[in-house]
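step: validate -> pass
step: tokenize input -> pass
step: predict -> running
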Amino acid sequence: MLRELHEELLDEVSRIYPYAMYLIFPQPPVEGTDTILPITSFADLLEEGRIMKNCAESYAEIIATEGRFYLYRVMHPERCTMALVRRNGAWVLWELKTACNNPASDASMLAVKLWLESSRGI
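step: predict -> pass
step: emit ->
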């Protein structure tokens, strides 16, 4: 029942924001890896929301227009959706969640933090 509701809401988002398919996302602020993949289009964002049962698609306009928020797929050590936000000129972890917005494991959190640190040359 919840899955059906989620699918209906995704359809509703597509009807309410038909222009969203034409939004152009900026280049990812932090380069991805084999296991951390930037979400670079609205279609990818819809797919992420569907697969992970979250509201990723609701961030489309913010990602495309404000330049202060970006989403990634994390594939390992577990499947997560990750959000970065720009604070004081640096990209920092804002959120890391597994399916249905459940908390990520410590191992996933550590992997993401190490990735961010290495991208800054720390």
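step: describe -> The longest helix spans residues 2-16.
step: cleanup -> pass
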